[in-house]
Amino acid sequence: MPIGLGLAASHAPNVFVAPDDWEVRYKRAIDDVPQPLKAKEETQEVRRAYGRRIEAAFATLRAKLEAYKPDALIMVSDDHSEMFDESRCNPSLAMFVGKRGKGVLNLLKPETLDDPGAEVITINCHEELAKFIANGLVKRDFDLTLSRQEETISVGARNMGMGHGFSRMGPTLVPRNDIPAVLLWLNCYYEPLPTARRCLALGRAIADVVRDRPERIAILGTGGLSHDPRGPRAGWIDEPLDRSVLKAFADGDPDRLSVLFELDSDTYHGGTGEIRNWLVAGAAMDRCNATIIDYMPIHHAVTGVAFAYWEKM
Q1: Model confidence pTM above 0.70
Q2: Domain that residue 181 falls in
Q3: How does pLDDT run across 156-199, given as a tens digit for each residue?
Q4: Each residue of 274-303: pLDDT tens digit?
Q5: Is 313 among the domain residues?
Q6: Strand order in 145-147's β-sheet?
Q7: CB under 8 Å to 146, separation ≥6 — which residues?
Q8: Domain total of the chain
Q9: SS3 label, residue 307
């Protein structure tokens, strides 16, 4: 059965936190980078208004999932040195083919899955479908790194598990943990990085692999949009870039973004690379027009925050 529902959302930590608590993460992410003047306009009242819009956008995505009633959710996110390690093993593309994804929720402390008292999130996984997709992608010339344990275990010294792109988004969109997931990691931070063309090809390949499966399948791309936490552009947002990306999806023309990362620009470094996850989801929905739920250039979230979905009738 073709993938009938696509979702996309930012996963910046502050979108999961009450606006009254944004200041801590904001100051930590920007360090000593001079901030744009617009950041001063984000008063507590403005931030709370953004918070209400974020809650409404997540509610819309949850409603779309509930209405579609998927048998599985393919989650496309990236790693921030949680599951993988830049020095030991940093795959361009990785999949988990076990039963449970586990991750640490708290980003304010260096907690691991093994620390007593760590807040651990578990996502039930669709092991058989993950293996099927992995085999299908290899046949279509995608080289995968596979993690085959019963549950996610990090490669690096700190066992943080699957990472916050999964551990925060999963409980937010699937609070009952009743939709088994397929976890797919795409390298969005560490050179050499996948091209936009490769990400679009990956999305289409995933859709092709599962086309004749009996399950109702949804796909989620999570991350971005423009941001550079702890980098030289921390707190700065490239609003024209963000709106151009969203316009391409709304027009049902993701191929317009095929050259997105070919220019070497400071804007494309850091977290902006997470737009790759949106490219995979958008391409999996082919030329379906996206509905853009909301877009907010929130400096105190250190991110261009956006939410969208694709529906095939």
Answers
A1: yes
A2: 5-303
A3: 888 999 999 999 999 999 999 999 999 999 999 999 999 999 99
A4: 999 999 999 999 989 999 999 999 999 999
A5: no
A6: 145-147, 93-96, 181-186, 72-77, 217-222, 5-9, 303-311, 291-298
A7: 94, 95, 96, 97, 134
A8: 1
A9: strand
